[in-house]
Amino acid sequence: MFGDIVRGDYSGISLTPPENIEFSQISKGLFNEALKIGITFFPDRGGYRERVARFTKETLHQDGIELKEAEAVWISELEGRLMKLDVTAASGHMIWYILMFGDEDNTYRVTGVFPKELDAQFEQPIKAALLSTKLISTNAAHN
Hints:
Helices cover 17% and strands 48% of the residues. By secondary structure, the chain is of the alpha+beta class. It has a single domain, classed as Protein Transport Mog1p, Chain A, CATH 3.40.1000.
């Protein structure tokens, strides 16, 4: 089990992982293979508003993805959005929580994924982990 904070040093962000879920650290985040639960970090060049504007019900629906909910959030004093997506993929019917935040130059994305049948059990812990995200370095993300 990890300590209080998991650092994605290459991504410039950190978060507090959900309690009582055993994770293996992978190159871009955390993963529990048995439960098919993952949390990944994705830094991205480009402005936040431009990136998040692509996540509309219409554009996602074209890819077979349903936007279930979206809420405005602030992460490390940066504008953000937390979205819940319902996705049917090769690995099965999944729930994706995507946290995007940033400024006019950079976007940071943290994604929590788990099987839809585990929604009642893992929705709140994954959502809380994503909302614990902090920006720890702007240099590491875009080198």
